[in-house]
C-alpha cells in the first residue's frame, strides 16, 4: 500500500528518532538537522517533510519515551491492579532517567533552553507534563472506581513522580552517582507504589 505524502516507513522513522536522541545528547538542541539526517542515513528534507521543525521532531522523540513509560497504565488489567501498574510506571521513569543517553539528552535540552526555548518547551510538554497528565488520568479513573481516593489527581501524580525520582534525577542530570542497579530500581518502584496506595487508600 502506498504511503501518504510526507509519510515514511516505520524503520526509517525509528532511525530518525534514534539519531535525534544521539546527536542532541552529544551536541545539544542547536545541533543542525543535517547532522541528524546524516546519522539516520536520510535526507534533511525527509525529516522536515515528516516533522516540519526541530521542535516537532523533539516532541516526537519525547513522546515515544513517554509512551514506553506510561504503557503500564494502559495495560488491560492495569485498572484492577493499580499497585502493579504504578510500580511498572515507576520502573519506567527510573529506567528513563538512569539511561546515560536519556540523561545526556535532557541535560543538553536544559542547556539549550535559553537559546532555543521553543524546542525546550516542546520537550517539556511532550515529556514531563504529558507523563504526569497521563498518570493523573489513571489516578482519576481509579478514584472513580473506588480503588483510590485522590481528591486532586494532578497533585497526586506530582507527589508520586517526586517520590520515585527523588534526587536520582538530579544526580543523573549532573552525571554523578548513577549507580542504581536492577534490584534497587525494583525496590524503589514497589515501595513507592505501596506507600502511595496506603496514602491514598479509599
From TrEMBL:
<keyword id="KW-0238">DNA-binding</keyword>
<feature type="domain" description="HTH tetR-type">
    <location>
        <begin position="10"/>
        <end position="69"/>
    </location>
</feature>
<dbReference type="InterPro" id="IPR009057">
    <property type="entry name" value="Homeodomain-like_sf"/>
</dbReference>
<dbReference type="Pfam" id="PF14246">
    <property type="entry name" value="TetR_C_7"/>
</dbReference>
<dbReference type="InterPro" id="IPR001647">
    <property type="entry name" value="HTH_TetR"/>
</dbReference>
<dbReference type="GO" id="GO:0000976">
    <property type="term" value="F:transcription cis-regulatory region binding"/>
</dbReference>
<dbReference type="InterPro" id="IPR050109">
    <property type="entry name" value="HTH-type_TetR-like_transc_reg"/>
</dbReference>
<protein>
    <submittedName>
        <fullName>TetR/AcrR family transcriptional regulator</fullName>
    </submittedName>
</protein>
<dbReference type="InterPro" id="IPR039536">
    <property type="entry name" value="TetR_C_Proteobacteria"/>
</dbReference>
<feature type="DNA-binding region" description="H-T-H motif">
    <location>
        <begin position="32"/>
        <end position="51"/>
    </location>
</feature>
<dbReference type="Pfam" id="PF00440">
    <property type="entry name" value="TetR_N"/>
</dbReference>
<dbReference type="GO" id="GO:0003700">
    <property type="term" value="F:DNA-binding transcription factor activity"/>
</dbReference>
Amino acid at each position: 500500500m502506498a504511503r501518504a505524502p510526507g509519510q515514511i516507513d516505520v524503520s526509517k522513522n525509528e532511525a530518525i528518532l534514534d539519531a535525534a536522541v544521539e546527536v542532541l545528547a552529544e551536541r545539544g538542541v542547536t545541533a543542525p538537522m543535517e547532522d541528524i539526517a546524516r546519522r539516520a542515513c536520510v535526507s534533511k528534507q525527509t525529516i522536515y517533510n515528516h516533522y516540519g521543525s526541530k521542535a516537532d521532531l523533539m516532541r516526537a522523540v519525547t513522546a515515544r519515551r513517554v509512551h514506553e513509560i506510561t504503557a503500564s497504565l494502559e495495560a488491560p488489567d492495569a485498572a484492577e491492579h493499580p499497585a502493579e501498574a504504578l510500580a511498572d510506571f515507576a520502573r519506567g521513569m527510573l529506567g528513563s532517567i538512569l539511561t546515560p543517553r536519556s540523561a545526556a539528552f535532557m541535560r543538553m535540552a536544559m542547556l539549550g533552553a535559553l537559546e532555543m526555548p521553543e524546542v525546550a518547551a516542546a520537550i517539556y510538554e511532550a515529556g514531563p507534563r504529558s507523563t504526569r497528565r497521563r498518570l493523573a488520568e489513571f489516578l482519576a479513573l481509579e478514584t472513580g472506581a473506588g480503588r483510590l481516593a485522590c481528591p486532586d489527581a494532578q497533585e497526586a501524580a506530582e507527589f508520586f513522580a517526586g517520590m520515585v525520582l527523588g534526587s536520582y534525577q538530579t544526580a543523573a542530570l549532573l552525571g554523578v552517582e548513577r549507580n542504581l542497579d536492577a534490584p534497587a530500581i525494583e525496590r524503589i518502584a514497589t515501595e513507592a507504589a505501596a506507600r502511595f496506595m496506603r496514602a491514598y487508600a479509599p
